[in-house]
Amino acid sequence: KNQVEQSPQSLIILEGKNCTLQCNYTVSPFSNLRWYKQDTGRGPVSLTIMTFSENTKSNGRYTATLDADTKQSSLHITASQLSDSASYICVVSAGDMRFGAGTRLTVKP
Amino acid sequence: DAGVIQSPRHEVTEMGQEVTLRCKPISGHNSLFWYRQTMMRGLELLIYFNNNVPIDDSGMPEDRFSAKMPNASFSTLKIQPSEPRDSAVYFCASSLEGLYNEQFFGPGTRLTVL
């Protein structure tokens, strides 16, 4: 069983709308949690990195939150744009790296 | 900076052939990572180097896979002999130092083994 679970698997929203992606993990001990954006045909690009002591971190229209007690993280995208269409991958570091399967986001005009 | 450079971008080969993938990390980065990505298994870390020394190769699937880093600016991932199930996109990434710092990914090599 994957120790990093992402939901939903895929999501379609209209341009301009907000959305929230979820990442639940069972990995322990925990060093940091990262969110990556991966455009089709390209390598992943780091959006945020959070340690266990951080609750929130923003990068432009992307805001990641972390609840280390419940082992949950979310990535909130505000005022979505067509260029936000991509896969979003959650990665938890705990001695090694554990990858979520990703959420495929499609933003439609 | 040109970022992480990988070559070739695409490779099509026949089963049993040797395949060599190449990576040039970002200048000044001390850590280099090789990943494999497939639809079925997602992104997997194969091996990573720190200061040219392999630190963790537990993700390397079989003895058919080997990786080297002869100097700070070059690494190779070799598959010999290749099999159809090795078909995937292989990414190289680098970071300033270690597993926990931000990693910068290359564009990947799409490998198809027929």
Describe this structure in words.
The complex is a heterodimer of chains A (109) and B (114). Chain A is an all-beta fold and 109 residues long. Chain A has no helices and 11 strands. In chain A, strands 2, 4, 5, 9, 10 and 11 form a 6-stranded mixed sheet that branches. Chain A is globular. With 114 residues, chain B is an all-beta fold. Chain B has no helices and 11 strands. Chain B has strands spanning 5-7, 10-13, 19-24, 31-38, 42-50, 53-56, 65-71, 74-79, 88-95, 104-105, 109-113. The mean pLDDT of chain B is 94. Chains A and B meet through strand 5, strand 9 and strand 10 of A and strand 5 and strand 10 of B.
What Rg of chain A, in angstroms, do the CA atoms define?
13 Å
Oligomer: heterodimer
How many helical elements of chain B? 0
- Percent helix of chain A, as a range, is under 10%
| Major sheet attributes of chain A | 6 strands, mixed
Structural class determined from secondary elements of chain A: mainly beta
Proportion of β residues of chain A?
over 45%
| Mean pLDDT over the full residue set of chain B | 94
Low-pLDDT ranges of chain A:
none
Measured between the Cα atoms of the first and last residue of chain A, the distance is 37 Å
The dominant shape of chain A is globular
Strand proportion of chain B, as a percent range, falls in over 45%
Note the overall shape of chain B. globular
- H/E series of chain A: EEEEEEEEEEE
Structural class of chain B: mainly beta
Helix content of chain B: under 10%
